[in-house]
Amino acid sequence: MTPDELSQALSTALASAVADGALALPADALPASVHVERPRQREHGDWATNVALQLAKKAGTSPRSLAEELANRLGETPGIKAVEVAGPGFLNITLDAAAAGELARTIVETGAAYGRGDSEAGKRVNLEFVSANPTGPIHIGGVRWAAVGDALARVLEASGAEVAREYYFNDHGAQIDRFARSLLARARGEAAPEDGYGGQYISEIADAVVADAVAAGGPDPRDLPDAEAQEVFRARGVDRMFGEIKASLHDFGVDFDVYFHEDSLHESGAVDRAVDRLRDAGRMFEKDGATWLRTTEFGDDKDRVVLKSDGEAAYIAGDIAYYLDKRERGFDEVIIMLGADHHGYVGRMLAVCAAFGDTPGKNLQLLIGQMVNLVKDGQPVRMSKRAGTVVTLEDLVDAVGVDAARYSLARSSVDSTIDLDLDLLTRATNENPVYYVQYAHSRTCAVDRNAADRDVSRQDGFDPSLLDHATEAALLGRLTEFPRIVAQAAELREPHRVARYLEALAGDYHTWYQQKDRRVLPYPDEDVTDTHRTRLWLNDAVRQVLANGLDLLGVTAPERM
Asked: What are 419's strand-pairing partners?
């Protein structure tokens, strides 16, 4: 019996109590579904609900009386072994072994679809993440967003949403000018501009720009006048740098559906259209020769200049146009993932959302991620061999590999600063969380291989009532939770919940595996029985859920380690 089936049984019991007059509750007060959850203490049963406490006042009775009425009706439900009324009116429900064990077959037969749902169905979501400036390799903060953002996209899709992964390509503004000047200076053997970029990668790209330009039959850009030379280094340098960024992300398992160029907002007139839309709505005003947006009307700490007194667009003008563009492309929800240094951006952008008549926190959602610190040999790692100033995606992957990097970055709430111990993430020990989960999966696969060698086949028998050990009940209970964990991770925008669930599942599996009287394989002098076959179903259910969960995080599920 799944949580949804139990919820339906509770709803049926409530409806029948109302129908026969045992419960004086208006029909429209009946909940569409009854929430059930796993009790904190295993001895309290398999599932618990506080529905009696929620409805008692409306029904004109005490919570405990209502709970007792439901307990009597649920006791007749096939698959339910016992129902206990606890405390002021909680219901603790215990399933019989057969009803609980049936889940193992359900998971195996459902396969990769187990855990997927429709809680986010009907939503078109634009998810923007990473969006690092094309002036250098992706630093460790951007790598965190690559791991978390792609995992969030996968979780949302698994919950029924239509998701577009989008990268905002900042190819407009002062930082691009500084990048071009830095390349030109390095190519000419000159000192970098005081406000420019350094690192080995600048030399590599500068050399490549010269080689590309000459190979294309053009002049050596180093010999051109400064303005012309800088334009060559800007166009070719940005294109090459961004090509490297895309390649690095692809190797990290992250690809985007849309690469949106900031420059296009200014060239297409999108900024002017957005300003006109807000002006027509009465949200703009003129002051000191500039055009301002009344963001204080929507909770911002001050109004914002959109068009400067010289007619140039302020930085926020592009943000306004970009948000409107996303909404006009048909996205119901716009999620933007930002670094820890963007806290000041939140108030003004939520005000922009409201100024367009949208709902902040719904149509526009801003997620702020905290810092990532790397540690090796007990010491902070702060410098990159190639970038010179920051640790990059390539540095992290070279140190621990893609799987460990993605998992370790996605397993913590983005609200928290994380310290990644590079030594720990390369160890084949249970202290390494990604190893712990992947090893559990590979162990399930080893059991499968050994079962095949011993002629233990799932297809020859399944008796869920045989899954009656405490470790099996714990394992089945954990497996039952997976769909809800995925839906919760999608709703709260917290993919780390999937990782923490997998670690708990791996722990339950290792505990079960180590029970000498819970063997899947018969001893040499034993015949194969339905007990072995049924336990193989449970083993394979764990394997499937581990694989499904790791896939949501973009991490592989190895069959051998």
From this structure: 373
